[in-house]
Design brief:
Number of helices: 5
Mean pLDDT: 94
Shape: globular
Distance between the termini: 29 Å
Oligomer: single chain
Radius of gyration: 15 Å
Order of helices and strands: EEHHHEEEHEHEE
Structural class: alpha+beta
Strand order of the largest sheet: 1-2-3-4-5-6-8-7
Amino acid sequence: MQELIIDCGVCRLRPFRAEDADSLTHHANNRKISMRVRDRFPYPYTRQDAKQFLGAVTRLDHNATEFVLAIEVDGQAVGGIGVILGTDIERISGELGYWLGEEFWGRGIVTAAIRQFAPWTMQRFNLIRLHADTFHDNPASARVLEKAGFTKESVKRRAAIKNGEIKDLNVYVMLK
C-alpha cells in the first residue's frame, strides 16, 4: 500500500513515523507553541511525549475520530496538522488543528498545508463544515486561516482557559 503524501509546494503532509521522535521533540519543545494550542500538547515536550504521541497516531485506524499528519520540510517532521471528526449529529463537521516549529514560522507553510489538507479532509471524511478555534491573542493563526480560505464565524467569549488566563476563542469556518 502506498503511503499517503499530500504535496503542498513548500511542504509535504504525510503520516507520522516512529523515526520522527527526535525531530518532533526538537520542534515541539517550545513554550511559544504550547501557549497557542490545547493543553494536551505538553511543555516541556520530551522525547517520551513524542514517543507516546507517535505510538497513538501511528495506530489510528480508519474508524478513528481523529486524523493527524506530519508537516514535513526537507525530510523532517516539523509540525502537525489534523482533524477531530464530529460525532452523532455533528458527524458532518470537523475541528482543524495545527502547529509548526518556530524556525519555520512566516514562510507560508501552514497556509499551504491548510489549503491542501482542508478540502482533502472534507472530501475524505464527507464533511460539510470544518472549523478552527484560535485564541483572541493569536492574530497570526487567524491570518493563516483567512489566507487558507476560512472565514471568521464568531467569537466564543470567555470560552477557554490557558495558563490560568480566561480567553476568548475566535471561530473560523470553511464550508463545503
